[in-house]
Design a protein that fits this description.
single chain, 388 residues, 2 domains, two-stranded antiparallel sheet, 17 helices, disordered C terminus, transmembrane, transmembrane helix, membrane
Length: 388
């Protein structure tokens, strides 16, 4: 059986014929007619040197032989001086692109009529039938080359969309970080300033200082006098059970049943709280508490008088005598008691000096506005009472 030979243009063949050629070339015959045709054409272009000599597939290269072989045939068959001059013209004009086209055209058109090898009869018949179909080949080839352009546009559209989205996303920058840090720093400074002003207004009052020092002394007395007990919770891990534990102190209820506990608290509170509060409310030299005004603005407590009385009571209270009956009654000690009281007196005296001008001015205005002339002054009434 003679081997099958394929010839003719691929565009004029049916799908079944193209599938048969693809199977003969060991290619896939799946897909549409255009896919199989492009696959065969690509394979022929890549393996042209091998398939041109194969009689089964040489008919598929009929047109390509005629377009690629004229130049070597002309050089071999016409060894005339004209060819040498033509070669010289080509070599000379290679440097000038403007004249190269004309020389190449004349050089390529002459050998077509003189030295084209005569193909087989079968190839000639196929070539005579197929000229009208040659233009579609160029159209398909151009369409194949033009098709990738929409893919490029599509890829550009796809890649441009995320870029547009990313432009709207806020990116951290050094300027933004610096602005945020400066804002946080300003807020911290503002809060610190407010805290300092609030603390200053609280600690710039002699009454508040007296209460704060008394509270600190009370906490120290409770810490020393109370027999604290603790509950220990060992670690749940066996490896650390002997070294690590949690201890929580608590106040035993038997402490409130002890007379010594209440005795120590009473002897501490009498000179520290009771005597200064009573005498500071009774004795006052503040101008607002003057009796010369018709409606005096009575202050509930004079902090300067209370501080002075506290210092005197801390110094004169008989802790040494009471220590004979109640051991350890002076928990704080004379040194710290007198020091705390002296500091309180100094701060109260400073506050009184600072507020004295405004207090005397307010008292004078109240005295002028509220005291009538016919009312007898306290000094006159006392003198009249002595004369009688």
């Amino acid at each position: 059986m003679a081997p099958v030979a394929y010839s003719g243009a691929l565009q004029s063949k049916k799908k079944a014929e193209l599938q048969e050629i693809a199977r003969a070339l060991h290619l896939s015959d799946a897909g549409t007619k255009e896919d199989i045709q492009n696959r065969i054409k690509k394979h022929l272009d890549q393996n042209q040197s091998l398939l041109e000599d194969n009689p089964a597939f040489s008919g598929l290269f009929g047109k390509r032989k005629r377009s690629t072989q004229p130049l070597p045939v002309h050089v071999r068959s016409v060894p005339s001086p004209a060819s040498e001059s033509g070669g010289e013209i080509v070599a000379k004009n290679s440097s000038s692109p403007g004249t190269t086209r004309s020389t190449r055209r004349s050089f390529a058109l002459d050998p077509i009529h003189d030295a084209t090898p005569v193909p087989e009869v079968r190839e000639v018949s196929m070539m005579l039938k197929n000229p009208p179909i040659s233009p579609p080949e160029e159209e398909t080839s151009t369409s194949i080359l033009v098709n990738p352009t929409p893919h490029k546009d599509a890829s550009r559209m796809i890649t441009s969309t995320p870029r547009g989205i990313l432009r709207n996303v806020a990116k951290p920058s050094v300027q933004l970080a610096t602005t945020t840090f400066q804002r946080l720093q300003a807020d911290a400074k503002q809060r610190a300033r407010v805290f300092i002003l609030a603390s200053r207004s609280t600690l710039s009052n002699s009454v508040n200082i007296w209460l704060i020092t008394a509270l600190l002394e009370l906490l120290y007395v409770l810490y020393v006098v109370i027999p604290w007990e603790s509950v220990e919770f060992p670690s749940s891990r066996p490896a650390y059970s002997g070294n690590f534990y949690v201890s929580i102190p608590y106040l035993p209820l038997t402490t409130f049943q002890s007379w010594a506990f209440w005795g120590v608290l009473a002897h501490w509170s009498i000179p520290a709280l009771v005597i200064p509060a009573v005498l500071g409310s009774v004795v006052s030299f503040h101008p607002a508490n003057a009796t010369s005004a018709r409606i005096p603005r009575v202050l509930p407590l004079d902090p300067l008088t209370a501080s002075i009385m506290r210092l005197a009571a801390q110094y004169a209270y008989p802790y040494e005598t009471l220590n004979a009956t109640l051991h350890g009654v002076d928990v704080i000690g004379p040194r710290w008691r007198i020091l705390n009281s002296a500091v309180g007196v100094a701060l109260a005296f400073t506050e009184a000096i600072f507020t004295a001008p405004s207090a005397y001015a307010e008292a004078r205005m109240r005295h002028r506005a509220g005291t009538p002339r016919r009312v007898t002054a306290p000094e006159d009434s006392l003198s009249n009472f002595g004369e009688s």
